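Re: the 125-residue chain
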Amino acid sequence: QVQLVESGGGSVQAGGSLNLSCVVSGHTDSMHYMGWFRQAPGKEREGVAVIDSDGTPSYADSVKGRLTISQDNTKNILSLQMNSLKPEDTATYYCALDNSVRPLYRLAVDEYAYWGKGTQVTVSS
């Protein structure tokens, strides 16, 4: 079974940076997409950034230019470099995987079956 464990969250001031990591274990063959999603209290979970098996990233408009997704050579570690953080970035961040994501819906939460437990990011003003 696939397991994902996030780390790297914390509390920072607006304009600060964090780097999130997700360690993937288990059988990952045919996992075509990896991604980061976030959920703030009382709000829906939303896609932040995803990356396909070729290394092509996709970002939500709200984070373009500030957040960068990457994966290691074995695709067992997913990272999210977060720069110029804003208070609206405050949320629990989750990593996710799936092997059957439809490209046009690659940032959609419902496309992903495997999820980590999340790591908290808090950005203060």
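The two ends are 40 Å apart (CA to CA).
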